[in-house]
Amino acid sequence: MARFMHLISIDDLSKDDIVHILKRAEEFEDVARGLKVSKLLEGKILTNLFFEPSTRTRMSFETAMKRLGGDVINMTAQEASSIAKGESLADTIRVISKYVDVIVIRHPLEGSARFASEHSEVPVINAGDGAGQHPTQTLLDLYTIMKECGRIEGLKIALMGDLKYSRTVHSLIKALNLFDNEIYLISPESLRLPEEFLEEVKAKEVTLDEVIEEIDVLYVTRIQRERFPDEEEYRKVAGSYRITAETLSKAKENLIVMHPLPRVDEIDASVDKTRHAKYFDQAFYGVPVRMAILCEVLL
Ligand code: CP
Question: Contact, 64 vs 32, CB < 8 A?
Fold first, then answer.
């Protein structure tokens, strides 16, 4: 039986739920790599309802569903749907939930996925709501840490970059706290983590130089240009941080560098060839993790 119907926020999951999903994901790795065949979700249909661009989230949900024998309907172009005629999000969800078994939604407005779940007869999964939450990214981030560091607790983890608008950070920081990690925050002054998170989680603001020799994970984020109300404010911080292979010369041998991707210029290509770079593996891990999530809500 499903442990939860919708997945809107990482707060919807207990520590046990998270551990359960990560263990289940590990069982799906061979299927995710196409080495084993599974028909677990045969007869089920997923719709990807994306009102914002996506490569990894949309495609890894589609891959996960298809590798498990299910089917996918994509609705990416608002112009080609009745939303262009003025249909509300509530009505769109009411209707789509008559056709499919699970809805994956990405929308620029914070709270939109929760709103969608209130009008759906089938499970709704939040694939990113504005600067709000991105819980499935958090689960694959934790999975990456588990696979690459061997555990998800007792680690020193630095979150670097746009901590103000990055929904991946907003979800991840809450989950990392559940697992008793030491969290460091590294960001330009104008992109600091909002106070509401600082009140809720334990984290320390530092510079990269102060912690580079001791951290186990460096999680870098892009400046979320699309969330800035004022383009001038974006220009003031654009290009203000960049990790290169040289930056990592003092790091622990087994430091891992993560990034939810896409990157712009915050991680130089020179890092890709180092043993620290794990962001492309991280993108792959989205497939087994999303398989585990889909099985949780559909079976
Ligand atoms: N990490 C992530 O959400 O990537 P996409 O925007 O490509 O889905």
Answer: yes
Q: Which atom of ligand 1 is nearest to the CA of 55?
A: 7
Nearest CA to ligand 1 atom 6: 54
Q: What pLDDT, in 10s, does the model give residues 121-149?
A: 999 999 999 999 999 999 999 999 999 99
List the residue whose alpha carbon is closest to atom 3 of ligand 1: 57
> CA 278, CA 271: separation in Å to the nearest integer?
10
Which atom number of ligand 1 is nearest to the Cα of residue 52?
Answer: 6
The alpha carbons of the chain give a radius of gyration, in whole angstroms, of 19
Q: Is residue 262 reached through a cis peptide bond, with omega within 30 degrees of 0 on the bond before it? A: yes
Residue 53 alpha carbon, nearest atom of ligand 1: 6
| Å from CA of 245 to ligand 1 middle | 24
Cα–Cα distance, 193 to 189 (Å, whole number): 9
Instruction: Write the residue with the smallest CA distance to atom 5 of ligand 1.
Output: 54
Distance separating alpha carbons of residues 186 and 167, to the nearest angstrom: 16
Pocket test for ligand 1, best of 57, 129, 281, 289 (most atoms within 8 A of CB): 57
Chain segment 32-43, per-residue pLDDT in tens: 999 999 999 999
Residue ranges lining ligand 1, Cβ < 6 Å: 54-57, 128, 137, 260-262
Distance CA 1, CA 16 (A): 15
- Going by C-alpha positions, the residue among 24, 16, 14, 69 that lies closest to residue 289 is 24
Question: Rounded CA gap, 240 and 265, in Å?
Answer: 10
Q: What is the pLDDT of residue 92?
A: 94
